């Protein structure tokens, strides 16, 4: 049974997507449509192909076969930065932050793509650490000082506002590496939000979290979906999270979709229990 709300506008279509690595079909004829505002879970045993689905959506890999359409645009084969521009952001299984930078600097770096590069570089040099290759900085700063100052102010205000909205204002000037794990995850999600996505892909956001952090994360994901008008696709092994917040769940095994439905339907599906939930569900 499908649980897709057909009154919602289609946002992402994976149309017979296949990703082959040599003789291995990591993703095999994957077809699914995600509609605006949905919160969808992607689950399955280790090696089922879940992260590869994220990698083809975000342009890390070009699918061997099939087509990916986002918001009416065929994005198959586009570069990752082009896909980010169109409104897809992601987080990774292992947290990826600039550990020596503050929370604010981390968000500013993520906003980088919104501005033309010279502007973004200059703002980063001032609010973050100077990088190599910024010799043009002083020249451009003199030439475009007024526009730059305006843009800088806007960018910093925007970053601060985002940090407040995700509840990290108390640690805005702390180094990312000094934050507790749950806050590092939030910061990673905030960095994804800084690119102003329509769709966010979260790869195992609850990995390594304690039960309290996991509870907070579940609320956080529901809250940001509402506050930022997001569509969310989530890979997660923690069944409490998946069953607790997803409206629809897609189950993969050996690269293929083996089931799709509401949390209740998935929990009672014999194919899913056999391939996956039998093991995972016992631990919930
Ligand atoms: N770049 C690559 N080259 C070769 N094989 C790959 C590559 N990326 C993934 N694979 C293989 O594709 C299969 C699917 O991997 P993938 O990481 O997508 O699974 P997953 O469902 O995300 O697993 P997990 O839950 O453990 O993260 C695995 O067998 C993996 O070894």
UniProtKB/TrEMBL annotation:
- Every copy of the ABC transporter domain together lies at 12-279
The entry's keywords: ATP-binding, Nucleotide-binding, Transport
**An example molecular function term from Gene Ontology annotations:** L-phenylalanine transmembrane transporter activity
Tell me a GO biological process for this protein: D-alanine transmembrane transport
Q: Which Gene3D superfamilies match?
A: P-loop containing nucleotide triphosphate hydrolases
Under the heading Pfam families, the entry gives: ABC_tran, BCA_ABC_TP_C
The protein here is known as ABC transporter related protein
Species name for this entry?
A: Thermotoga petrophila (strain ATCC BAA-489 / DSM 13996 / JCM 10882 / RKU-10)
Q: What is the lineage of its organism?
A: Bacteria, Thermotogati, Thermotogota, Thermotogae, Thermotogales
């Amino acid at each position: 049974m499908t649980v897709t709300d057909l009154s919602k506008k289609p946002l992402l279509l994976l149309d017979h997507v296949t990703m082959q690595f040599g003789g291995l079909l990591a993703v095999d004829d994957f077809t699914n449509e995600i509609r605006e505002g949905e919160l969808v879970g992607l689950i399955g045993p280790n090696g089922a192909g879940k992260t590869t689905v994220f990698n083809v959506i975000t342009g890390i890999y070009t699918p061997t076969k099939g087509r990916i359409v986002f918001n009416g645009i065929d994005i198959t084969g586009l570069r990752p930065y082009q896909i980010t521009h169109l409104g897809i952001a992601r987080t990774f299984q292992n947290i990826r932050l600039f550990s020596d930078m503050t929370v604010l600097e981390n968000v500013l770096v993520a906003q980088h793509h919104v501005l033309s590069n010279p502007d973004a570089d200059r703002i980063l040099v001032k609010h973050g650490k100077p990088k190599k290759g910024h010799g043009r900085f002083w020249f451009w700063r003199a030439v475009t000082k007024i526009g730059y100052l305006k843009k800088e102010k806007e960018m910093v205000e925007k970053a601060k506002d985002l940090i407040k909205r995700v509840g990290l204002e108390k640690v805005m000037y702390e180094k990312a590496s000094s934050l507790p794990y749950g806050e590092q995850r939030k910061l990673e999600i905030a960095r994804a939000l800084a690119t102003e996505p329509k769709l966010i892909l979260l790869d195992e956001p609850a990995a390594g979290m304690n039960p309290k952090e996991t509870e907070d994360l579940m609320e956080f994901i529901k809250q940001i979906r509402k506050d930022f008008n997001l569509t969310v696709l989530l890979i997660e092994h923690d069944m409490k999270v998946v069953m607790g917040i997803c409206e629809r769940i897609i189950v993969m095994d050996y690269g293929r979709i083996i089931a799709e439905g509401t949390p209740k339907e998935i929990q009672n599906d014999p194919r899913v229990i056999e391939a996956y939930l039998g093991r995972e569900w016992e631990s919930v």
